[in-house]
Structures are given as structure tokens and as C-alpha cells.
Amino acid sequence: MTTETPSPIIHVQIENSGFNASIILTETNYDTWSQIIKMQIVGHEKLDYIIGDSPQPDAKDPSYSKWYAENQKIKGWLLTSMTSEIMKRYLRLRTAREIWSALDKAFYDGSDETQIFALNQRAFSIRQSSRSLPIYYGELVEIFQELDYHDKVKMRDPEDIIMYKAAVDKLRIHIFLNGIDAEFEQVRGEILRMDPSLDLECTYAYIRHEANRRILLTSDLTTSNSVAMLARRNTPPVRHSGSMATSRSFDIGNKHAGSSRYCTHCGDTGHTKSRCYDLIGYPEWWDPSKAPKRKGKTSLVTSSVSIAIAEMSSPNTNATSLHISSESPGKSFDKPTPIGSCAWIIDSGSTDNMSFDTSSVSKLKPSEKYVVSTANGTQATVVGKGSFSLNKLNLNSVLIVPSLNFNLIFVSQITTSLNCVIIFWPDHCVFKDIKTRKMIGYGTKKGRLYYLDLTSSSSSALAQSLSVTSSTSTSNIWLWHKRFGHVLFGYLKHLFPELFLNASPPLFKCETCELAKSHHVPFRPSLNKSPLPFTLIHSDVWGPTKVPTLNGSCWFVSFIDDHSRMTWVCLMKTKQAVCSLFNQFYSMVATQYKTSIQVLRTDNGGEFVNHEMEQFL
Q1: Residues 455, 449: contact at Cβ < 8 Å?
Q2: For the chain, which terminus, N or C, has the lower number of CB atoms within 10 Å?
């Protein structure tokens, strides 16, 4: 048995002459490797040794020794920039030109359409996918440069070259805008509406400026909420004979303590009036759960709130004593907080309506629940339950949990008590009465949460609708509205004034009446259009009119350019004039715009499909 001797590892050492390829040839990176190596060799003025036409000198020629030394040097440059497996294939070739030619035949074929197809496929399918904008743009530019390198289109007319480059640049702008994240939807629309349009680099700079602005706002928000609210227990539970008392102390810290930036509008620190979201609007990524609560325009400051809850040990007790003290303004429970100005979150995951406010609660009584579990796994104490009045809207059996930061409305509980359904949309939600199918409430989405809208107009309408829903007159109003074929509620009030003693016609909104006035849904903007003017022309004929024009025309034909949406309208006395008018329009385009119509799109009517039109086309 013979044992094969392993191939020795080949090490090639050459004199360092300032050549640094910084890339190693593998089985997949020949295109990039060849360009970098070629640039390095050109920089050393040795290009003739790999692709030049200068012949090899004779061995007896005095210049042969110099040529041989230079050839060996360039061979060393090429071989040391390869992997060892590839190096073995070309080590025995005599000249650097033979190595370069062999590599070109083995790795690259200029007519390879498969590589161009793969590049186009990558360009059309690539997405930002929450990556940073420079990484996404850099990956696209790399693909575009590879496509330009493989582009073999040749044109002689300079104007055609300019138009071709403009069309390619516009297509790449659309590819870039199509792949960015949805948060740049508004910026994308602004760019597409610009006239003149931006090139690819300016488009990237425009979106990058917007991305940097959002990052700056996000950093301000993160800094502002770095010290939002700290709650900890300082005192262990104290037990008394015959009763149980629990004492907890909360330290509520102010965000940006000592910050030099102060907003004169909302009273918060960490930003100025020009950057206040109350004035410039909240962004889509805004999470209201991270925002501190304010009483009017008083920002949160460091305070210490001590809550002592003493309940009778007997399960039949109905006495609950609250001892609340506050040393400084903030989330203090000894001062009245108008509940209508606090946020109510519409929550489908909670088990009860809950609130942190104790000043606006009415009919406070003991609760069957002593603690509730929060989303982060901790437990919060329930001090009782009561009723709240939100602009004449009553919520019963609301649990009082002082450690909460927001008020919660339980979806199941409110739908049962109000006999309504809640429909959630991407940016809002609506409350609809089950019997009348009328909208009785409204919620808006801020960040990832839905909030009950308690503005003056919507809250009054909500309260009024709830107050009249329980009455018999409301059912009669809807009954007669439908019997009279959806007549206006104002007219119905004149016919039956007794039905509107406790109701107002503007409060009744009939969904069927509103939908009946809608003709169609809006069309979405389309990016599918011709790259150049007069590439595609849409044409159609309309008529005849009942009243002719002064010159007796009863028909007209329209020609619309798909690229610019420019429209030409020509009047006709008969439909047979379509062919002659199109002939004139074709000549006008060729004369004035130095181009020709490529495609004519019609409805295949008889005025377009005939012998005369076929001869012209």
C-alpha cells in the first residue's frame, strides 16, 4: 500500500514595492477583485504586462532581464492576492498576461445575462427592513454600480444618452423609495411631488436629513424620560391589633432635573417651545405611556407621597381610611385632579376599569379585590372602588389603584354596560350602539395605545347619545327616519317635535345616509407610467352632445400623454374625423417635439379600428 504525500503549503514572498491589494480572490468575487487589482497595477504603470500589446523581448535582448524581473514581480502580485487553491492552478504559467487572461476566461463572461438578472432581482426585492438608512442605501448603490459596469448599451446621439441616463436614474429613485420603511411615507410623497425631481443622491440626502431629525427627537425623548417616575417601598408593613395597615412611600422624580431647556408652553424641561409635541404634533412612533402626567402646566418635581391604608380585619367591614400627604406639587392625591383631562386607555387585557385618581371618585367603598397584577409582574394595591363622571358619562365599579400611571377602561366591561361594540382601525376606534348602529364614542391611537377621546365636542355628543339611548323616543326617531325613506332629522323634528324634547337633530348620524352620498373610494396614486413623453398615448371619443357648438361640432376626441398627463382635445362634427385628427396630432408631435408616438391605446372602437386607421399605422 502506498501512502499519498500531502501537498505542501505554498508560500510566495516578494519584495514589498508599495503594492497592497487588500483583497483576496475567491470563487465568487472576481468582478470586485479584478477591478481593484487593475487599479493597483495601473498606479504602478505596469498595465502593459497584463493586457498591453507590447511583445515579449527575445532572451538575447539586453532588455530581457529587466522585462523578466518586472514580469515576475507582477506575477507575484497576482498570485499573492489569491487563495491557495486558486493559486495552484496558475502558478506554472509563464507570464502575468497568461495568468490574467486565464482568470478572465475562467471567472467572467461579459455576455452573462444570468448575473445581470440576479442583480436586477436583488435591486427590486431589497428592503430597508428597520436597518439604518446608510446601510440600505449603500447596498443599493453597490448593486447599481455593478449594473452600470455590465451595461452594454451604446448610443451615438448625446441627447439620447442624457434621456437614457435620466430614465435609469428615475427608475432607481423609485426602487430606493419603494424599499424604505413605512415611517418615511410622508417624505416619499413629498419627493415624488417635487418638480423638478431630485436625482438619486439628493433623494438619499433628503431622506437622511429627515432620519437624522427623527433620531435627534428620539434622543431628546429618551433623555427626557430617563428619570420619569421612581416608586419604591421605604417602610415595612406595620401590623396593629384588630386592624391591618400598610404604609408605602413613593418618590416621584422630575425628568431632566437641572436641565437648561425649558418649554414655556407645557412647562416641561428637556425641550423648548419650538420642539414641543403639543404644538408641532406627535409623531407616529410616540408612546404616550412614557410621557409624564401634568396637572395643567405644572411639571413633575421630586415629591414624597405616603399612603396609609387601614382596613378592618373583618371581611364585613365597610370602612376604609385614607391618609394622604404631599410635600411638593406633582402627582399629589390631596389636591383635586380633573379626571376629564387625564388619559383613559382603552385596554382589552385588563379585568376591570381602573384609575389612579382618588379625588374625583364618588361613592368610594371597599373592593372585593385587594391587589391586582400588572404587566411587568408586580402587584399593586387596590384601595377601593367607586364611580367616575367623565363629562356626564358615568363609569361604575372603577377600581382605585394609586400606583398606576394611567386610567384604564376595560373593553368587555364598557361594551356590556353601554350595550355597544368597539371597532378598531389602524389609527382610531369607534364605539357603536348595537341597536341603533350609531357611533356613540371615539378613540384615537397615540403610539401603540388607543385613548378615549374626551374633547368637548365628542364628549358632549357621547354623553347626549348615551342619555337618549335609553329612552323610548330615540327608538321612535330612528323608526320614523327609516319609514320616511331616511328623511333629514331636521325635517323629522318639524313633524314630531315631541320626539326631540331631550335630543337634538345634529346628534343623530345615519351611516346609511352618509354612505349613500359617497360615489367611490379614492384612487391610490400609481407609479406605473411611461419613462419618456409620447411613449404611450391614450385616446378616446366622446359624444354626441345634445347641443352642438357654434361651428356644429357634436363630438370630441382626446389624446393624453401617459408620461406627462398632457391632454389635447379636438372637436369633431362626425366620428369619421378621428383618423385625420390623429394624423395631424402625429405630425405635430414629430415636428414640435422631435419624437414619435410609440403606442396608441384605445377602447378598440369603430372609429379606431378601420381600414383608414390601419393604413396610417
Answers
A1: no
A2: N
Q: Where are the domains of the chain?
A: 30-107, 113-220, 225-333, 336-458, 471-516, 536-616
Q: Which DSSP symbol is given to 120?
A: H
How do beta strands 354-355 and 393-400 pair? parallel
The answer to whether the CB of 461 falls within 8 A of the CB of 391 is: no
- The amino acid at residue 303 is S
Residue 421 φ then ψ, to 5°: -120, 155
Alpha-carbon distance 411 to 428, whole Å? 15
Domain 336-458 coded CATH 2.60.120: no
Q: Residue 417 belongs to what H/E stretch?
A: helix 411-418
pLDDT digits (tens, 9 = 90+) for 211-266: 888 777 666 545 444 434 333 333 344 343 333 333 333 333 334 444 557 777 77
Q: Record the cell numbers describing residue 186, joined without a space.
A: 410622508
What distance in Å separates the CA atoms of residue 452 and residue 471, rounded to the nearest whole number? 25
Residue listed under C-alpha cell 357634436:
554
Q: C-alpha cell of 424? A: 378598531
Model confidence pTM above 0.70: no
Distance CA 10, CA 88 (A): 8
Task: Provide the 8-state DSSP code for 205.
Answer: H
Instruction: Print the SS3 string covering 254-292.
Output: CCCCCCCCECCCCCCECCCHHHCHHHHCCCCCCCHHHCC
Q: What is the pLDDT of residues 405-453, one digit of tens each?
A: 778 888 888 888 778 888 888 888 888 878 777 777 778 888 888 888 7
Per DSSP bridges, beta strands 371-373 and 379-381 are antiparallel
Q: In this structure, are residues 76 and 70 in contact, taking their beta carbons and an 8 Å threshold? A: no
* Overall CATH class of domain 536-616: alpha beta
